[in-house]
Amino acid sequence: MISQVFVLSPRGDCVIFKDFRGDVPKTTPEAFGRRVQASRAAGSDLPPAVGIDGVQYLHVKVGDLLWVATTRVNLSPSLVSELLLRITVICRDYFGQVTEECVRRNLPLVYELLDEVMDYGFPQNSSTERLKQFIAIQPQAARSLPPGVTGVAGGG
Fold this sequence. Notes:
Elements: E1 4-8, E2 14-19, H1 28-41, E3 49-52, E4 55-62, E5 65-71, H2 77-95, H3 100-105, H4 107-117, E6 118-119, E7 122-123, H5 128-131
Antiparallel strand pairs: 1-2, 1-5, 3-4, 4-5, 6-7
């Protein structure tokens, strides 16, 4: 059973935080963020499963976001990784792309999706078509750049 799911931005900001069980400290995003920063400073990548103070962190990187699940029990890392990837696919199905901006613009929708996909830390329903029957919130489109603006220095 998964205790928490959270999403970290490239800066280490916690974009999403959902606590399903209350058995893991709420400071886990900060602890994991510090471990990620230390790993980057050392020039290495963090392994997909990391233990910190009795809490297991399992994560996947999608785009520039880290999707993280925590647990205190022994779970299959492949199951958790698959679930996290499935959640990102559902988000992409709903609002087109999984970027920090899209996730922030659709926070209520992401929280509602997490509530439907997981119940008390147990995966329930990960079919986008089935979820559309239960989700009433409409996605917010990402802001598009005006013509001629590329977001790249130098205008190229």
